[in-house]
Batch of 2 targets.
Target 1
Amino acid sequence: MGPAPVSVEHTTLNPDAVYLSWEVDGKFFGDGREVALLEYIYARPDLEQLRGDPEKVLQAIDDFARSVRGLINVGLMKGAIVCDIITKHKPAVVLELGGYIGYSAIMFGNAMKKAGGKQYYSVEKSPLFAAVSTSLIDLAGLRDTVRVVVGTGAEGTQRLYDEGLISQADMVFFDHHKPAYTDDLKLCERLGVVGPGTLIVADNMVVPGNPRYLEWVRSSVEKKREMDKGAEGKGNPNLQYRNRSISSWEPSGQEDAMEITECYGIEA
Ligand SMILES: C[S@@+](CC[C@H](N)C(=O)[O-])C[C@H]1O[C@@H](n2cnc3c(N)ncnc32)[C@H](O)[C@@H]1O
């Protein structure tokens, strides 16, 4: 792995933000709980108050995850950190890989909109989860700001690029298939979706961890040039990165960390 990040920050656990266990009969998601969530939300007596209110929709999702079944969302604790980053960085265009049922897309899309941003793209591999997400984003009143794209991270990014919808993103959020982070980042680098000025937020650096990804973003340009020589999927090793690690908590109550990588230049 490359050098340690330039700064490491810690946050404290908020017990009120902890969800029920994700694991039920050996399953962590995809056992019908996502459709049950949609039914739960649309059966709530306060449904009319949720319409057009992203914060209330997020609270309703949190209620479900605390009282019915745990969900693999980024959650309130890490979510608050990313919202803070969005408020400061003010991205106009955000690309998210791994949308699940739309929790992060609603939370971060809303934060981006409030900070003056234009478009949040949420790529999700499962068409079923993408349908749940689209419905909740619509309920939250964010239909014009957040667009859900069905496909893997690589397929979705390539399609958005080919259709001319995305060139360079101001922020990229990785929260999908952990072994795909590095290859999908390299694709973003090749296409110029990541370039000087882009901020990359990568979740789950501890749970379950991602040493290959950390090695790439924390390595010097010289080392990345070496690493890329024999590699099949090449990135742009000339991009200069500065890293911060923020320790926080999964909604399961487990300690985790996010890697915040700022692309600040290109080395000739
Ligand atoms: C941890 S969840 C995302 C949670 C979401 N970001 C949130 O906080 O609300 C990971 C999601 O990535 C999706 N996924 C898995 N492999 C993927 C891939 N290669 N490309 C895009 N999405 C993928 C899964 O279907 C799942 O919905």
Target 2
Amino acid sequence: MFAAIMEQPERRIEAMTQYGGEGLPWIGLSPYTSKKHIVQNIGDGSYYHSSNQNIRYAVTTGQRMTFRILYNGVIANTGGQDYASSNSIEKLCRRLEIDGVKKIVLATKDPSVYQRRHLPDIVALRQPDEIPAALKELEKVDGVTVLIYDGDCANERRRRQKRGLAPKPVKFTVVNEDVCENCGDCGRKANCMSLQKVETRFGKKTQIHQSSCNQDRACVEGDCPSFVSVHVKEGTGPGKVALPDIPDDMADPVGPNLDRPYSIYIPGVGGTGVITLNAMLAQAAMHDGLNVKTYDQTGAAQKWGAVLSSLIVSHPDTEIIGNKVATRSADLYLAADMVAGAEPVNLKVCDKARTVAAVGTDILPTGEMIRDVFFQPDTTGIRDYIATHAMPGGTVTTPALTIAERLFGNYILSNMVTVGAAYQAGYLPISAAAIEKSMEAAGSAAKSNILAFRAGRLSIADPDRLAGMMESGQVTLADRFAETSPVQSIVETKVTPLMSRLSGLPDDTTALVAELAADLVIYQNLSYARRYTERLSQIAEITAERAPAQADRLVRLAAKNLHKIMAYKDEYEVARLLTDPVFETRLRKAYPGMVGMSYNLQPPTFRWLSPARKVEIGGWFRPALSLLARMKTLRGTAFDPFGRNPARRAELEAVKWYEGVLETVSDRLTLANADTCAEMIALPDDIRGYEDLKTESLARAKIKATDLTEQL
Ligand code: SF4
């Protein structure tokens, strides 16, 4: 299955067809639908293989559709082979014109390359960021149109870089998690699975997963200033994480009997090493002298397509019939990816009387989660659903992704963690020695694979010991509350006197409030922090009196949300967070070959000149940012140079609005309406993003506040 009819902006796949059938479903469907136009994606390899005939057929049958051709010079879905003969874009355009295509848009980063070449009159040159507008333009043409994107396939470029066939990247994009608001705008713009979430003391934030990042920088567009470019010496990149010491001192479990062939089914997603895992286990079984048959079923070539692997092992004297785990015949359901594991079509291999399951319980973000930050899958429900398909009591779970990220800084190792958990639960008929021997063949990754396998074993054998190892792992680049920050000394010297009315709170809530108040001292000044603690004191007293059972929950919510709305990220605050020494130190540690950094900003002047463009400003701009951070005393005053910006005025006004919300809660709180009050207190959590996005989410929060107030 290869081609997809895709529709912007939802980017959802509406239909699939076989390789060579691109566009044909639409030709059959178009007379029977009110839809006027579709976009069909194809690659240049597919075009020369067979899709050129489909374009001719679409022209002949009078279709209204756009073929979007990614021109990268290789057949990317089968491994990046060069296709025969030199098929230049000029020749392609001329051929399309002869075939009857009405209009062609050629999107390229460097239009000047084509300006002096002989292109047909129906060709218009555009920049890649003009593609959405160009597609709208083409949609209006009554006939077949083509959009050619002249550029690297990002996956193919990454593949070549790994093989040493293309220069290694010298520029990486990272997110400063303190600046990030977790609005999801970058996910919606880039639709990129490398935009993962990390838990911080300010909630979930975006992080770019470097080992899967294609460096196409689509996420950088938009108003968000969180993105920082790291420039490194050629041949260097993200530094290696110091591997933990996990000795092989765990007791070996009793494995399953091999009185008949043992079937292991591994549902997963592409790009996460499922096929490698299957090959590794097959090799290990052979080291143990077992019979082995395997089968890998892969979906589309891109990352995160479905991958379903079967591994059947047997005693050397027992023959294995077939190489694919059939319906209700899995002995072990190895769900390294829980979302794929919960697919009913995959669960068909399970049998409640036969199957045991090993499940990695944290979830790789799906496309839906990347685009919608408020979409939260019910992980417990998914885990329990998988467990209902296995033998009662026959499911073992491990937070494999978290373990892999914390200990090794690489989620790809989560599969090995899940295998370790399955082994330690006694679900694998292969010895640990054979598994580790097989992993040794992985070359430079051998050691981390083996340690990840042992970490998975430890998660079952001694979870407390593993938890201790994970505590030391550093998970974010930015952390303005890190031990080396001035927050603790400000708590001791300035904030403690402000906390007298908050003395009845539990210790951890007191510590939370004190740290957030200290942050507000740094953000603005002591009197701003006092305004914060006084408002919280009022909430603490009222909740203790009227809803004591809910008091701690409500105070913690108020502490976080009041801090969030008061510490709004204007120019001064973004400048402070981008130049925070903790962030810069961690960046240098994470990129040992770092030679410089640059900021991706959209200063007000540039916004006026070009509303859609970010500007990458080099490290020379750091002193200016430092100065800007120190100018915070102008914030909200008549001399504030940014004070007339409508977004800034809205943020300033939002603080007063939220204080009004807290007043309403204080007036009307009862034990019976505590949940509604909690929803009101949490409203700032929905206000996210920068500039227009933030203004829009603030407007929505105000409407919600009115609705909730009516319920009190
Ligand atoms: S603030 Fe929004 S756009 Fe910026 S990094 Fe975070 S999630 Fe992405």
